[in-house]
Amino acid sequence: MHKNKLHSARVFCGLCALGLFAFFNGAIAQNAVPAAQAASGAVTAVVTTNPYGLEALWEGSDLVTKVVLLLLLIMSMGSWYIMIVKVLEQSKMGRQAKDAQAFWSAATVAEGTAALSQESPYRFLADAAGTAVNKHHGLMGHIPLNDWIAMAIQRAVDRVQSNTQNGLAFLATVGSTSPFVGLFGTVWGIYHALTAIGISGQASIDKVAGPVGEALIMTAIGLAVAVPAVLSYNWLVRRNKAVMDEVRAFGNDLHAVVLGTIKN
Predict the structure, then answer these.
(1) How far, in Å, CA of 153 to CA of 120, rounded?
(2) What is 203-226 written as a DSSP string?
(3) Using one digit for the tens of pLDDT, what is the confidence trace for 59-99?
(4) Could you give the C-alpha distances from 12 to 4, 15, 124, in angstroms and in order?
(5) In which domain, by residue range, is 149 found?
(6) What is the model's pTM?
(7) Residues 216, 231 share a domain
(8) Both 30 and 85 in a single domain?
(9) Shared domain check, 99 and 13
(10) What angle do CA 204, 205, 210 make, to 5 degrees?
(11) Are 21 and 83 in the same domain?
(12) Can you list the alpha helix ranges (DSSP code H) found in the chain?
């Protein structure tokens, strides 16, 4: 009997031990799931949220930094707008130069002028030459006709060249000033970052690297605005030169043709 009771007690203790082990094991497993989920959420938050990016720079910046960022944005948008518009204008002038070749097949200067498009710079030169011939009287009549027509065509060429230069000054200004605007934003950001660090008294690497890195973004933005502006300025100036060479050649030939028709 005593042995049976001892055996029963041992069995009961073993069952209790197994029950306690199962209980604590389940509790640990239940606590581990939220902990793992919390850790996973923390990792996800770290991956998806950048505390030192452009969004953090904008949200944590003061009025001066916001003004600098908006100024760089306006410079960039203006540069790209001028680039696109000038490329389209130069391409249009290239097509008009090809169409102007039909001018030399006309029977008279008036017929050739009427065949040109109203928006064509070559039509503008032809109209200027015709107007010069018709207005060669009064005080203007004392100027030799050859010189008078040459002056009229040259003024027209200068007007066309002035129109092709529109917007290039803005590109040159953006290319030369935007790096300094970005540098100003960097200096301003570093100054405020160091001031805040000095007030807090915490000069650890995480307190220094974040604000200083955000400030350096301003210099990078300034360079990103300047480089396309400078490259496009040089490219557009070279294309303008090629376009104006065609216009000047047409003007010289037009001068000779108009004089020839008058003498004949």
Answers:
(1) 15
(2) --HHHHHHHHHHHHHHHHHHHHHH
(3) 666 788 788 889 999 999 999 999 999 999 999 999 999 99
(4) 12, 5, 112
(5) 54-263
(6) 0.70
(7) yes
(8) no
(9) no
(10) 115
(11) no
(12) 2-48, 54-60, 63-99, 109-115, 121-134, 145-164, 168-200, 205-263
